[in-house]
Design brief:
Layout: E1 15-20, H1 26-39, E2 43-50, H2 59-87, E3 93-98, H3 101-111, E4 115-122, H4 131-140, E5 148-152, H5 157-163
Parallel strand pairs: 1-2, 1-4, 2-3, 4-5
Helix pairs in contact: 1-2, 1-5
């Protein structure tokens, strides 16, 4: 059963969720989300998911790896938050979660009833739109709790500004 969204009710505002990763097209989703949120008096949430490392032999090493992953997540989120600020007046909300990407996206949407739209950017290489777009837009789209906007990875900043 899908949870009711409250983004249009008094005291709430529509949030656009962009998933942050190391793909070249990620910036397209962030810029589109920032511009769209600004134009609709909404908000932008940037989600970085730390995937499980699978290394659990020594707790000390695992803790070091987790700390390094958290530092990388904070740095990467900061870089994309700066990008959003350069293209809009939006101050993005930054979220870091641990687990599998698809599960954490769904969990965040379920936890935050103001998230109304997931924004993904399609890859530009010959292998297809990318694993995240393929998994969410493909298998999960029929039961996904919010609409999904897929931004072509080939759009320029000016193209995005014209349509966001």
């Amino acid at each position: 059963m899908l949870m009711k969204r409250k983004s249009t009710e008094a005291g709430h505002r529509r949030k656009f969720l962009a998933v942050i990763d190391d793909t070249p097209e990620c910036s397209r989703a962030v810029i589109y989300g920032a511009r769209r949120a600004e134009r609709t008096s909404g908000a932008l949430v940037l989600l970085y998911v730390i995937e499980p490392s699978g290394f659990q032999h020594w707790i000390g090493v695992e803790n070091i790896m987790r700390a390094e992953a958290m530092e990388e997540a904070e740095t990467t989120l900061g870089r994309f938050a700066d990008l959003a600020r350069r293209h809009s007046s939006i101050e993005p909300e930054m979220v870091i979660r641990e687990g599998t990407r698809a599960e954490q996206i769904t969990a965040l949407i379920e936890a935050d009833e103001d998230i109304a739209i997931l924004i993904l950017a399609a890859g530009t290489d010959k292998e297809g739109p990318g694993p995240l777009v393929s998994s969410i837009a493909g298998k999960l789209s029929a039961t996904f709790p919010v609409p999904i906007t897929i931004v072509p990875g080939t759009l320029s900043d000016d193209d995005i500004a014209a349509i966001a």
